[in-house]
Amino acid sequence: MFSLDKIVRPNIKELEPYSSARDEFKGNQAILLDANENPYNGPYNRYPDPLHIELKKKIGQLKGLKPGQVFLGNGSDEAIDLVFRIFCEPGQHKMITIDPTYGMYKVCAGVNNVEVKKVKLSPDFQLDAGKMLEAVDDTVKLIMLCSPNNPSSNCLSRDAVIQVIRHFDGMVVLDEAYIDFSPENSFLGDIKNYPNLIVLQTFSKAWGLAGIRLGCAFASEEVVSLFNKIKYPYNVNILTAKKAFEKLDQVQEKDQWVETILKDREELRKVLGSLKMVKKIYPSDANFLLIKVDNARSIYDYLVSRLVIVRDRSKVSLCENCLRVTVGTRAENTLLVSALRDYEEKAGEN
Ligand SMILES: *Cc1c(COP(=O)(O)O)cnc(C)c1O
Predict the structure, then answer these.
(1) Following DSSP, what letter does each residue of 58-101 receive, concatenated?
(2) At what angle do helices 330-349 and 296-305 cross, to 10 degrees?
(3) How many CB atoms are located within 10 Å of the residue 98 CB?
(4) CA-CA distances (angstroms) from residue 130 to 119, 133, 167?
(5) Among 254, 271, 325, 343, which residue's CB has the most CB atoms within a 10 Å radius?
(6) Phi first, then psi: what are they for 105, rounded to 5°?
């Protein structure tokens, strides 16, 4: 049986969080002489609401969740780091993740001195829930999943994810950075059923706001209050909150971008598929394509010389000779394709 109380680190449970001026007096219709701010240069002279309640209400409305089920961080990367600090005793506890997946899970584990066990995906990048659950022992407190997965670009099967959540007594973090591009449903609706589920989403991809650094963790109110307890008091700044707040009124613009990107992705798939060097293009539920080629390094280097930068993933497991290509604008995609055609022509001459 999952018990949040049992898996939170004792020092975090007992921690007395920092109480900022804005925690102790909420509201801004007063004479604020409590935070040693400069009274001039409004509105940026003031510290932000530590919890960004107004922004959370708006995000909550969009996602069908209460503001208390929303944590906001400096990118989803902050939330990834915080889960280790809440649940894993350094040098003692372990995390299980899939292989291949997003590299930040392992880096954050390393920073927190948490050992990582990797469970390899099948050659078509699917999760074997049984195999993952077999890797669980008393030292494993966290499982990190990513769907749609980076760099494989596909969704993990819903049944496999549910099986892991149901049969694991620790926390399951499901990273949905690419969910807006996916035909599959988000797991947000499952948060009410599973107290051991944390879903991560971000403003960095579909929303077009990677530069403002804003990520969300959605979970039970109990879990979210643990995040809030240990975060930096003002981890999300006023400029970021304002920009996100505005963008949330333009959902149709985001949806339009997604539609364009998905259309262009399939166009790109068609054109790339006609090149001799391309051996395979994996099914994608995201805004990028994973492409198996005959010589990833050499193609990567050639593209760099043409100032077209893709990601060489050939050293990653199951991704031998694979390049990861983000879908750009139509003009950018065209330049990529013409560079690849030139490469092919050049290779043909030798
Ligand atoms: C891009 C990406 C993110 C986004 O991280 P931010 O810190 O929110 O910018 C998260 N997870 C995965 C798998 C990603 O590919």
Answers:
(1) HHHHHHT--GGGEEEESSHHHHHHHHHHHH--TTT-EEEEEES-
(2) 120
(3) 24
(4) 10, 5, 10
(5) 325
(6) -60, -45
User: Measured between alpha carbons, how far is 326 from 308 in angstroms, rounded to an integer?
Assistant: 11
pLDDT tens digit sequence for 208-245: 999 999 999 999 999 999 999 999 999 999 999 999 99
The residue whose CA is least distant from atom 7 of ligand 1 is 75
Dig out the tokens for 340 from the structure: 């690849």
Pairwise CA distance, residues 75 & 85, whole Å: 16
Closest residue by CA, ligand 1 atom 10? 177
Over residues 330-339, mean pLDDT: 98
**Cα–Cα distance measured from residue 338 to residue 132, given in angstroms and rounded to the nearest whole number:** 42
Q: Please give the biggest Cα pair distance in the chain.
A: 76
Ligand 1, atom 11, lies closest to the CA of 177
Strand order in the sheet with 215-218: 70-73, 215-218, 197-202, 171-175, 140-146, 94-99, 115-120
Residue 341's contacts (CB-CB under 8 Å, 6 or more residues apart) are 275
The upper half-sphere exposure of residue 215, i.e. CA atoms within 13 Å in the direction of its Cβ, equals 24
Residue whose structure tokens are 């009410």: 192
Q: What is the mean pLDDT of residues 40-63?
A: 96
**What does the CA dihedral 287, 288, 289, 290 come to, rounded to 10 degrees?**
-130
Q: Are residues 191 and 69 in contact, defined by beta-carbon separation less than 8 angstroms?
A: yes
DSSP characters over 206-226: TTS-GGG--EEEE--HHHHHH
User: Which amino acid would we find at residue 333?
Assistant: N
Residue 102 Cα: closest atom of ligand 1: 13
What was the pLDDT predicted at 22? 86
Nearest to 119 by CA among 137, 136, 132: 132
Contacts of 5 (CB under 8 A, 6+ apart): 13
**Which H or E run includes 109?**
helix 104-111
Ligand 1 probe mutation, 74, 76, 106, 213, most atoms within 8 A of CB = 76
